[in-house]
Amino acid sequence: MDVFSSLADGFAVALTWQNLGLALVGCFLGTIIGALPGLGPSNGVAILIPLAFTLGLPATPALILLTSVYYGAMYGGRISSILLNIPGDEPALMTTLDGYPMTKQGKAGEALALSGIASFVGAFFATWGLVFLAPQLVKVALLFGPAEYFALFTLAFATLGGIAARNQAKAVMAAALGLGVAMIGVDHQTGVPRLTFGEIHLYEGIHFLIAIVGLFAISEVFLFLEHANGTAPKASDTKLNRITAPLSMLKKTSGTMARSTVVGFIAGVLPGAGASLGSFVSYTIEKRIADKEGTFGTGDPRGVAAPEAGNNAAAGGALVPMLALGVPGSGTTAVLLAMLMALNITPGPLLFTQQPDVVWGLIAALFIGNIMLLLLNVPMVGLFVRVLQVPTKYLMPAVAMISFVGIYGLSGSTFDLMVMIIFGVAGYLLRKLDVPLVPVILGILLGNEMEKNMRRALTISDGDYSILWGSPMAIGIWCLAILGFIAPLLVGRFLRPKKDATVAP
Predict the structure, then answer these.
(1) Burial of 298: CB neighbours in 10 Å, binned 0-12, 13-18, 19+
(2) Could you say which of 23, 82, 321, 435 is the most buried, measured as most Cβ atoms within 10 Å of its Cβ?
(3) Crossing angle for the helix pair 331-342 and 438-460, nearest 10 degrees?
C-alpha cells in the first residue's frame, strides 16, 4: 500500500542520529515545559522556535524538534495536575479531578505511571489515524480552487474560538486584529504601502514569528512580573512512592483508554476544538459509561486514564487538518503552521506530493517520539517532578533571554526586538482582558493567503462575488463555517470544561 511505503520512506528520513537526538531533546524539553504550570504547549513551541532557527536546522529536523516538544508538553501537563492540583495547561485540567485525590491517597506514583501509559496509547493510535486520514483528506483538498480555499480560511476563522469558546465576540475581535497586522506592508499586487505610517522597516510587513514570540513568550514574562516572588512547591508536596502502575489497574483502564482515544482523535480533527475539548468530552463520556459506583472524582484510575488518552489523541488529530489542508486544528498547531511557513513550506494538499520527505519524516518522528516519551515519562518521572521545585524567578529570565537572542538571530534588527516587546505588551493586555491569542496568530498567519485567494477568485470571475459560493463544495464549507460559528452559542455551555472548586488558581 502507498501509505505504508510512504511511512517506510519517512522512517528512513527520521532514523538518523541527528533527528533521533533532536526528538529526544524535544521530548525532554517538552515534558519539562508541560510540567511547569502556566507555560503549556503553545508557549513551549513559541519559545523554542527561535532556538530552532539559531541552530540553523533544515526543515525536517526543525519540525521534528518542535513536534516532539508539542507531544512532550502534552505528556508533561499531567505532572503538576496530579501532584499539586494545578494543571500544567488547560487540557490537563480534567486530570486533576481524579489525579489529585489519588495523590492524597498515597498513589501519586501509580497515577503518574498510569497517565504516562494512557498518554502513550492516545498519542500512538492518533498518529495511526493521522497516517490514514490525512492522505484521504488531501485527495479532497486537491479539488479546491481559490473560492473553496477562501471559504476554508473563513471556516478556520469561524471556528477560531472552538466549540467550548467562552466569548465568540472576543474571538472575532482578536481575529480582526490579526488580519489587520497581516495587512501591514507593501501590497505585492499593487505596490501600495498599507498601514506603514511612513516607517520603512514596516514595508516588508511584520514577520509572524516576531508576533508569536512576543504574544506568547514575552507576555508570559510580563505576567510573571506581577507575581515576582516566584516560589516553588515544597519537596514534601511532590514526594513519590511506587512509580509503576499495577497490571490490575492497567486491565481495568484498558477499555477507558480505547474509548477515550477514539473520542479525543475525533475532537482533535474538528477545526478549533483542540485538546481541551478532547480531554473534557473523553472524561464526561467515560463517567457516564463506566462510573456505575460513583467513584469518579474520588481518585478513580479511569478518571486519570480518560482525559490523558483523550487530550493526547486530540493532539495527533489536530495535525490532520494542519498538514492536509493548511488549517490548524488547535493553538499549538497554529504555532507549528507558522514554523512551516517560516521554512518556506506551504502546508496543504501539495505538501504530500511535493515534499513527502518532510511530511512522512515528521509522521515517522511522531511514532519515535511517542516511544521515547513513554520510556522517559514512566521510569524517569521522578526527575521531571524535581523541575516543579525550580522557582519561576529562575525560569522566566531564561525565557526572555531565548526570545531576545532568537529573534535578533533571525534578522539582526533591533527594530524587530522593539516590535516583539510591543507584541509582548499587547499579549499581556489581551490576556488580562481574557481575549484569546490564537485568533490573533491565525489572522496574522492566514490573512495574506485568504486575501490572495479571494483576489484570484474575483479575477477569474471578472469581479463577480457569487463565485465565492458558486460550487457545491464551497457551499458545504460555508455551511460548516456558519455552523461552527453558531454552535458555541447553542451548545458551548454543555461542552465547556468547568473548573472544579478544589483546583488551585
Answers:
(1) middle
(2) 82
(3) 60
H or E, element range at 439: helix 438-460
| Dihedral angle over CA of 310, 316, 320, 322, nearest 10 | 110
Distance CA 406, CA 65 (A): 16
d(CA 46, CA 49) in angstroms, rounded, equals 5
* Cα–Cα distance measured from residue 322 to residue 289, given in angstroms and rounded to the nearest whole number: 32
Which of these, 84, 82, 86, lies nearest to 109 by C-alpha position?
Answer: 82
Average pLDDT over residues 232-255: 72
Amino acid at 250: L
Contact residues for 222 (Cβ-Cβ < 8 A; gap 6+): 424, 425, 427, 428
Q: Within a 13 Å sphere around the CA of 410, how many CA atoms are in the beta-carbon half? A: 25
Share of the chain above pLDDT 90, in %: 4
Express each pLDDT in 175-184 by its tens digit: 889 999 989 9
Measuring CA to CA, which residue among 431, 410, 412 is closest to residue 221?
431
* Mean confidence (pLDDT) of the chain: 80
pLDDT tens column, 136-190:
878 877 777 888 888 888 887 777 655 445 677 888 888 889 999 989 988 877 8
From residue 471, how far is each of 124, 143, 263, 326, 412 by CA, in Å?
A: 38, 11, 32, 21, 47
- Cα 467 to its chain centre, rounded Å, is 34
Burial class (CB in 10 A: 0-12, 13-18, 19+), 337: buried
Spacing of C-alpha 488 from chain mean position: 20
CB 93 within 8 A of CB 281: no
More confident residue, 392 or 211: 211
- C-alpha cell belonging to residue 173: 475581535
Cβ atoms < 10 Å from Cβ of 83: 23
Burial class for 139, CB neighbours closer than 10 Å (0-12, 13-18, 19+): exposed
Q: How is 141-186 classified by DSSP, letter by letter?
A: HTT--HHHHHHHHHHHHHTTT-TT-S-HHHHHHHHHHHHHHHT-EE
Q: What is the pLDDT of residues 9-57, one digit of tens each?
A: 888 888 888 888 888 888 888 888 877 766 677 777 877 777 777 777 8
Closest by Cα among 131, 143, 127, 128 to 2: 131
Please provide the distance, in angstroms rounded to a whole number, between the alpha carbons at the two ends of the chain.
50
Amino acid (one-letter) located at 456 = R
Element (H, E) at 186: strand 185-186
Separation of alpha carbons 3 and 405, rounded Å: 41
* Three-state DSSP class for residue 390: coil
Distance CA 33, CA 283 (A): 24
List beta partners, residue 186: 193
- Cα separation, 211 vs 221, in Å, equals 15
Query: pTM of the predicted model, to two decimals?
Result: 0.75
